Amino acid sequence: MEKDRVEILGVLINAVNLSQTVDQIGAWIEERGVHYLCACPAHSIMECVKNPQLYPLYNNCSMTFPDGMSVVWLLKWQGFKHVERVAATEMMEELFSLSAQRGWRHYFYGGSPETLVALVQKIETEYSGLQIAGKYSPPFRDLSKAEENEVVARINASSADIVWVGIGSPRQEQWMGRQIGRIEAPVMIGVGAAFDFLSGQKPRAPRWMQRSGLEWLFRLFNEPVRLWPRYRQYPKFVFLALAQLLGLWHPKT
Fold first, then answer.
1. H or E segment at 115?
2. Contacts of 27 (CB under 8 A, 6+ apart)
3. Could you tell me the pTM of the whole model?
4. Residue 176, Cβ neighbours under 10 Å: how many?
């Protein structure tokens, strides 16, 4: 997936759409390699700008998909007309449908116990034949080495094909980076708050807001205290992206 990988503020992003992403994930599952994928909205890019130690987690993964309209617009501006937003929730739904036919097994790591129960109940109802390999709601703290080893053993014993990791960015990227070579599932995918959206625990922005790049405003209205520190970085993201395009700023990767 090195082809059409574009650097934005130091992060290498794959210029892909949803169909291409799902097809590539399916190919990786069939090949039985080991891969992890990172969602990449503007927030994730700014986390790397603030903490350059995060750059390798994104730039060394198998795919960094554009999960934000500002990122999509920047890619289109650079000539990649086929690019679309690859929202983690839509990706999950596409892969659930495909998995019901192909027998791929899913493991869910992250979210609250209540969220995971609601998520599994919903997808088992909507996707007949979908195989759930397991689920685990980790505590909201760093796991001890023994606890992490236990989680790895549990996931490997489940024979999962896809491990969905929903513990927020950059924690999920750091977790996936540590598990390469340890977790045997062919694909790990960081999906942020997608468990909450798909389970119905949190409302999703209307489609027109998603397509127009205003989903952040909807989410900020619903969770102002938690999300304001994230979204106040967006004007800086726009400024730095324009400065980079004009050759006036370069990332310290």
1. helix 113-126
2. none
3. 0.92
4. 23
Distance CA 228, CA 51 (A): 19
Residue where the block lists tokens 């395009």: 245
Contact at 8 Å (CB) between 168 and 223?
no
**Among 53, 38, 34, 33, residue whose Cα is nearest residue 5:** 38
Which positions ≥6 away from 3 have C-beta within 8 Å? Answer: none
Judge whether 92 and 104 are in contact, CB under 8 Å. Answer: no
* Residue-wise pLDDT tens digits, 30-71: 999 999 999 999 999 999 999 999 999 999 999 999 999 999
pLDDT over 90 at 150, yes or no = yes
- Calpha distance 253→248 (Å, rounded): 16
Query: How far is Cα 5 from Cα 11, in angstroms, rounded to an integer?
Result: 9
Q: What is the residue-wise DSSP string for 89-100?
A: HHHHHHHHHHHH
Per-domain boundaries in the chain? 5-245
Q: Are 73 and 26 in contact (CB under 8 A)?
A: no
C-alpha span between 159 and 143 (Å, rounded)? 22
> DSSP letter at 102?
H
As beta bridge partners, residue 38 has 64
